[in-house]
C-alpha cells in the first residue's frame, strides 16, 4: 500500500517535471520546428495544387466517360479507372521509393521538400480523383437532363451544372486530400523529404529526443485542425441543399 | 405545331428488349393543350422526350414548328431545343443557384447579355408570381414555388412549345390546381402550345383540349377531349366517369357530351312511361363544358322509343350487352 502510494507520487512528480521541461525546451526547438512547419506547409500546398490540376479533370472524365454519362467511352474509362486504382493500391511509402527516378528526373534531386512534392502529388491525384468522381455522381441526373433540354453544350454542362452543383462535396474532398497529404508529408520526411515528419524521425526517433516528438505531434494536430475547420466552414457556406 | 410520325423506340437491356414506342403518331395543334395519359411504363415519358430528342427515336420523324428536329444534330439541334421549353416532375432546379440564377440559366447558355437577362428574369418571375423570391435558393421554396420557377425557366428563351413531364405529380391537390391554372393562363396569354404527360385523369379533365390514352407504347385513342367523350366505347369517357358495374341487362349508360338545359329524365317518364332508376353517375367540367355520364336502369314497354329520343337529342346511349 505504502509503496504503491510513493510510486504514484513519484510518477506524478515525473510527469509534471517532464511537461515543464518540455515547455522550457520549446524556445530552443522553435527555430527548427518553425522551419519544419514551413517545409510541411510548402510541400502540402504544392502537392494540393497539382492534385487539383490533375485530379479534378481526371475525376470529371471518370464520370463523363461512364455509361450514361455525358460522353460515354467505356474503353477510356476502363483505362483511367485502372490507372487510378494502381495509384490507390500502392502504399505511399512504397510509391515514394518507386518514383524516385522520376523525382530525380523532374527536380534534379530526391532530397528536400521540393523533391517530396513529386511523390506527394502522384499519391494524392488518384485519391482526389476518386473523391471528385463520388461527389459528381451525387449531382441530380434530372438537372443535367434539364440542362440538355435547354440546349446546353456538354462542356458548359460540366462547368455550369456539374461542378457548381457538386461544389460542397468537392471542397470536402479537397480537405480530405489536404489532411491525407499532411500525413503523407510526414512519411516523406522519413526518406529525406524535410518538414515536420523529418524532424520527428531524425531528432525524436533517432536521437531519442522526446521533446521533438511531442512538439511535432502537437504542430501536426494543429495544422490538420486548421485545415479541417477552414474546409468545414467553406462547405457550410456553400451548401444550399 | 408538333407532328411526330411513326415513332418507334426499343430499349435493349441485358436480357430482354423493351419496346417503349410502337409506332406512335402525335399531332398537336398550335395553341392547344394536349395531354397524354397512361400508366407508368406505358411509354409516355419516352414519347415526350422524343419530341425534344432527349431520346432519339429509332424510327419516325419529329417536326416542331417548321423544322424537322430528327434531321438536326449538334449545334443546330441545341439551337432548336431552345425553342422548346420543358418542365420536370422533380423540378430539376440547380440547388447552387438562386431563383433568379435558375431562371436566367437558359439565357446565359444562349449568350444573352447580363442586362437583358436580368430584365427578362424580372418579367418572368412576375409572370409566375414569384418576384419576391428572386434571391431565394430552391431549398427555401415549397414544391409549388419550385415548379413555378421551373416554368419560368422553361419560358425564358421564349419558346413556342412547352413540354410538361408530370409537372404536377409531386404536388398536393391545391398546388396542382394552381399550377394547372398557371399553365392554362400562359397558353392563353402567350399562345403557347403545351404537350403534357400525366397519369392523373384530373389533369386531362381540367386543362386539356385534346388527349391521348397510351398503353404499351401505343395510343389506344386520341383526339379532342369532348369528341372522345361523345364517342361510343371511349376509354377516356370511362376513365373520367367511372360508373359502378352493378346493373343488369336493362342498364343503359347515357353520356352528355355537352351542357344541356332539358330535364331529360322526367321527360322520359312522362312521355314514354318508362321507369328510370339511377345507378350511378357524375358531372364534370371538361374543357369548359359540363359533361356527364349516367348509368340507369330503364324498364317499360316503350323503352326503345325512349332511347331513340335521347339519341336524337345528341346524347350518347350505350346499352348493356350491346
Automatic annotation (TrEMBL), chain A:
Lineage, highest ranks first: Bacteria, Bacillati, Actinomycetota, Actinomycetes, Streptosporangiales
Boundaries of every ABC transmembrane type-1 domain copy: 37-231
Family: Belongs to the binding-protein-dependent transport system permease family. CysTW subfamily.
Signal peptide segment: none
Keywords attached to this entry: Cell membrane, Membrane, Transmembrane, Transmembrane helix, Transport
CDD domains: TM_PBP2
Topological category with respect to the lipid bilayer: Multi-pass membrane protein
Source organism superkingdom: Bacteria
PANTHER family given in the database record: ABC TRANSPORTER PERMEASE, D-METHIONINE TRANSPORT SYSTEM PERMEASE PROTEIN METI-RELATED
Cytoplasm in keyword set: no
A Pfam family matched in the record: BPD_transp_1
Subcellular location: Cell membrane
Protein name in UniProt: ABC transporter permease subunit
UniProt record, GO biological process: D-methionine transmembrane transport
InterPro entries attached to this UniProt entry: AA_ABC_Transporter_Permease, MetI-like, MetI-like_sf
Example of a GO cellular component annotation carried by this entry: plasma membrane
Ranges annotated as spanning the membrane: 41-63, 75-99, 105-129, 170-192, 212-235
Amino acid at each position: 500500500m505504502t509503496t504503491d502510494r510513493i510510486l504514484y507520487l513519484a510518477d506524478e512528480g515525473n510527469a509534471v517535471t517532464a511537461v515543464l521541461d518540455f515547455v522550457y525546451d520549446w524556445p530552443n526547438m522553435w527555430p527548427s520546428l518553425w522551419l519544419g512547419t514551413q517545409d510541411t506547409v510548402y510541400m502540402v500546398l504544392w502537392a494540393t495544387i497539382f492534385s487539383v490540376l490533375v485530379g479534378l479533370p481526371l475525376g470529371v472524365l471518370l464520370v463523363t466517360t461512364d455509361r450514361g454519362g455525358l460522353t460515354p467511352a467505356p474503353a477510356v474509362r476502363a483505362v483511367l479507372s485502372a490507372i487510378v486504382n494502381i495509384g490507390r493500391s500502392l502504399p505511399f511509402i512504397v510509391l515514394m521509393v518507386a518514383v524516385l527516378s522520376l523525382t530525380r528526373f523532374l527536380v534534379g534531386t530526391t532530397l528536400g521538400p521540393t523533391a517530396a512534392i513529386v511523390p506527394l502529388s502522384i499519391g494524392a491525384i488518384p485519391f482526389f480523383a476518386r473523391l471528385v468522381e463520388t461527389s459528381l455522381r451525387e449531382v441530380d441526373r434530372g438537372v443535367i437532363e434539364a440542362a440538355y433540354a435547354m440546349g446546353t453544350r456538354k462542356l458548359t454542362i460540366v462547368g455550369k451544372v456539374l461542378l457548381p452543383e457538386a461544389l460542397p462535396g468537392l471542397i470536402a474532398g479537397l480537405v480530405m486530400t489536404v489532411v491525407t497529404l499532411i500525413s503523407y508529408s510526414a512519411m516523406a520526411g522519413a526518406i529525406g523529404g524535410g518538414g515536420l515528419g523529418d524532424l520527428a524521425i531524425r531528432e525524436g526517433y533517432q536521437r531519442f529526443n522526446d521533446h521533438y516528438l511531442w512538439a511535432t505531434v502537437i504542430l501536426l494536430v494543429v495544422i490538420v485542425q486548421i485545415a479541417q475547420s477552414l474546409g468545414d466552414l467553406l462547405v457550410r457556406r456553400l451548401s444550399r441543399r | 405545331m408538333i407532328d411526330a410520325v411513326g415513332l418507334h423506340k426499343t430499349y435493349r437491356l441485358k436480357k430482354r428488349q423493351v419496346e417503349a414506342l410502337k409506332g406512335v403518331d402525335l399531332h398537336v395543334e398550335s395553341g392547344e393543350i394536349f395531354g397524354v395519359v397512361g400508366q407508368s411504363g406505358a411509354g409516355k415519358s419516352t414519347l415526350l422526350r422524343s419530341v425534344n430528342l432527349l431520346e432519339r427515336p429509332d424510327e419516325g420523324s419529329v417536326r416542331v414548328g417548321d423544322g424537322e428536329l430528327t434531321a438536326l444534330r449538334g449545334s443546330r439541334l441545341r439551337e432548336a431545343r431552345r425553342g422548346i421549353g420543358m418542365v420536370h416532375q422533380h423540378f430539376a432546379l440547380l440547388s447552387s443557384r438562386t431563383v433568379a440564377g435558375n431562371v436566367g440559366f437558359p439565357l446565359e447558355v444562349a449568350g444573352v447579355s447580363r442586362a437583358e437577362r436580368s430584365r427578362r428574369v424580372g418579367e418572368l418571375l412576375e409572370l409566375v408570381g414569384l418576384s419576391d423570391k428572386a434571391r431565394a435558393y430552391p431549398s427555401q421554396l415549397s414544391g409549388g414555388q419550385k415548379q413555378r420557377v421551373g416554368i419560368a425557366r422553361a419560358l425564358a428563351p421564349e419558346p413556342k412549345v412547352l413540354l410538361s413531364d408530370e409537372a404536377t405529380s409531386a404536388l398536393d391537390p391545391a398546388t396542382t390546381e394552381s399550377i394547372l391554372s398557371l399553365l392554362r393562363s400562359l397558353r392563353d396569354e402567350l399562345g403557347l402550345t403545351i404537350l403534357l404527360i400525366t397519369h392523373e385523369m384530373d389533369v386531362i379533365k381540367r386543362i386539356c383540349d385534346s388527349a391521348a390514352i397510351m398503353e404499351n407504347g401505343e395510343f389506344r385513342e386520341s383526339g379532342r377531349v369532348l369528341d372522345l367523350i361523345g364517342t361510343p366505347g371511349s376509354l377516356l369517357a370511362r376513365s373520367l366517369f367511372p360508373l359502378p358495374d352493378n346493373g343488369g341487362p336493362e342498364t343503359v349508360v347515357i353520356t352528355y357530351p355537352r351542357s344541356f338545359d332539358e330535364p331529360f329524365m322526367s321527360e322520359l317518364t312522362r312521355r314514354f312511361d318508362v321507369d328510370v332508376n339511377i345507378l350511378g353517375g357524375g358531372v364534370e367540367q371538361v374543357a369548359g363544358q359540363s359533361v356527364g355520364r349516367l348509368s340507369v336502369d330503364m324498364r317499360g314497354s316503350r323503352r326503345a322509343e325512349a332511347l331513340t329520343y335521347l339519341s336524337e337529342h345528341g346524347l350518347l346511349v350505350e346499352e348493356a350487352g350491346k
